[in-house]
């Protein structure tokens, strides 16, 4: 705020004092001309000079004193006799000296006062300027501090909200981790010190969190003896003798899944899958190893049951004497039994995943391949297809097969598999051909016998007719014997 400055005082010219004294002298002399004698004019003029010097300063005082001295000398020289303005020359000189000294002193004091007042005014203006500058600085600082305070208040509020959100997030995360059936753990790679372990460890391992915190080797002790050495080689951070881990060791276990067995505190054996993730800082230095342990006991049991079922399936599938295949609905081969493989000299790895009609069995001719394609297309629509065809085997061997394709549906009625089957009927075809040939020969013999018999009957009839016209007994006996032979 700007302070009001005092009004400046108008400085009269230096000669105004001389004019004032001159005017007073003129007034005194005028009165004298009219017969009026002014009492004590010396004192009046003295006070006029003193007042002028006091009011207008040194130069004005000297000017008025000079005018007064001139008048005093003039009056002393002109006015002789009573009433006298002055005394003798000594008094005049002393009077002039006193007045001049007084005027100089009073004028100097006045000038010093004026200079002091001017300095005070300048100091006041400078003070006012500094006050204004300081006020502006204070206002700026106050505004900046207000903004900083508001910013800090907002930051504090935001920090409080963030801390609350972080706490809520941590609570939610802890709630989620506590509700998981999987064991979540975290260790420091430099010391293998356990940083975190959720409560699921109790139900999976049969040991509490405090048990693992109190025994750093418990992780290794619960591993099944048959799997311990293998796991220890893969998970070398379980052993304190391997610390600290090298970057190569950390890189080898990063993202690695390992399946092994553990022995619970109650003696039960569980299969688990342990997944490890390495976390590094900005310089690539490992700062934490996190892991998730999943109970896969049921999955292993299902896997073993599936493997047993697979063994039983192949025991039946491969032991049958007929050719059997499994196809996708589009004709891609999924499986072939050992009988079909032995006949072709192929292995499963050579044919699985290929179109069925492009495999050696059906490459004898284009007609054979097209017949198979048509059969697969009809079976893919839900029809059972059966026909006879020939297949090509090892070393160019060709057999005749009673071939069929049967669709297999799921519980929703969708066709999921095609089951082609083939039985070697080459021997039956040959036997049927031989039987047919024998039957044809028998028929031919019977026909020949019938025709020969008919011809002999004709000959016998002719001999009989001829004997009726012969009288010679010997010839008749010959003819009769010939008929009997026929």
From TrEMBL:
GO MF annotation: an example: protein histidine kinase activity
Enzyme class, broadest EC rank: transferase
Classification via InterPro entries: PAC (IPR001610), PAS (IPR000014), PAS-assoc_C (IPR000700), PAS-like_dom_sf (IPR035965), PAS_4 (IPR013656), PAS_fold_3 (IPR013655), Sensor_kinase/Photoreceptor (IPR052162), Sig_transdc_His_kin_sub2_dim/P (IPR011495)
PROSITE patterns named among the record's database cross-references: PAC (PS50113), PAS (PS50112)
Tagged with keyword Kinase: yes
EC nos: 2.7.13.3
Transmembrane segments: 12-28, 34-51, 58-80, 92-109
Keyword Lyase found: no
Catalyzed chemical reaction(s): ATP + protein L-histidine = ADP + protein N-phospho-L-histidine
SMART domains documented for this protein: PAC (SM00086), PAS (SM00091)
Ranges for domain PAC: 256-308, 385-437
Residue ranges of domain PAS in the record: 169-242, 309-354
Ranges in coiled-coil conformation: 110-137
Keywords linked to the UniProt accession: Coiled coil, Kinase, Membrane, Phosphoprotein, Transferase, Transmembrane, Transmembrane helix
Protein name: histidine kinase
């Amino acid at each position: 705020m700007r302070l009001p400055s005092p009004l400046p005082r108008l400085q009269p010219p230096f000669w105004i004092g001389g004019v004032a004294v001159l005017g007073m002298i003129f007034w005194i002399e005028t009165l004298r001309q009219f017969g009026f004698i002014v009492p004590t004019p010396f004192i009046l003029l003295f006070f006029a000079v003193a007042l002028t010097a006091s009011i207008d300063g040194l130069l004005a005082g000297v000017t008025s004193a000079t005018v007064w001295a001139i008048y005093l000398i003039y009056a002393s020289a002109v006015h002789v006799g009573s009433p006298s303005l002055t005394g003798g020359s000594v008094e005049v000189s002393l009077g002039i000296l006193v007045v001049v000294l007084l005027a100089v002193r009073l004028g100097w004091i006045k000038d010093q006062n004026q200079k002091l007042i001017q300095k005070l005014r300048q100091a006041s203006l400078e003070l006012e300027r500094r006050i204004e500058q300081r006020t502006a600085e204070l206002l700026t600082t106050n505004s900046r501090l207000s903004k900083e305070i508001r910013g800090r208040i907002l930051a504090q509020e935001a920090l409080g909200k963030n801390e609350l959100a972080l706490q809520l997030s941590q609570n939610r995360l802890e709630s989620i981790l506590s509700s998981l059936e999987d064991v979540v753990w975290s260790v420091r790679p430099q010391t293998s010190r356990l940083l975190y372990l959720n409560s699921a460890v109790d139900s999976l391992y049969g040991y509490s969190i405090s048990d693992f915190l109190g025994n750093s080797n418990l992780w290794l002790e619960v591993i099944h003896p048959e799997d311990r050495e293998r796991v220890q080689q893969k998970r070398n951070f379980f052993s304190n003798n391997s610390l600290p881990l090298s970057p190569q060791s950390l890189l080898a276990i990063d993202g690695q899944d390992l399946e092994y067995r553990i022995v619970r505190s109650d003696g039960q054996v569980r299969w688990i899958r342990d997944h490890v993730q390495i976390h590094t800082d900005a310089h690539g230095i490992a700062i934490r190893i996190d892991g998730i342990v999943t109970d896969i006991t049921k999955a292993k049991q299902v896997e073993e049951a599936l493997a047993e079922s697979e063994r039983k399936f192949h025991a039946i599938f491969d032991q049958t004497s007929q050719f059997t295949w499994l196809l996708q609905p589009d004709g891609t081969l999924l499986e072939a039994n050992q009988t079909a493989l032995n006949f072709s000299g192929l292995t499963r790895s050579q044919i699985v995943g290929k179109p069925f009609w492009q495999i050696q069995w059906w490459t004898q001719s284009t007609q054979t391949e097209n017949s198979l394609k048509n059969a697969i297309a009809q079976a893919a629509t839900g029809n059972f297809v059966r026909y006879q065809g020939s297949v090509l085997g090892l070393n160019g061997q060709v057999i005749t097969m009673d071939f069929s394709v049967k669709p297999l549906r799921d519980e929703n009625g969708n066709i999921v598999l095609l089951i082609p089957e083939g039985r070697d009927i080459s021997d039956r075809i040959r036997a049927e051909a031989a039987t047919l040939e024998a039957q044809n020969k028998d028929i031919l013999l019977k026909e020949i016998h019938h025709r020969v018999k008919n011809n002999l009957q004709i000959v016998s009839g002719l001999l009989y007719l001829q004997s009726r016209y012969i009288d010679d007994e010997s010839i008749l006996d010959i003819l009769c014997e010939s008929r009997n032979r026929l």
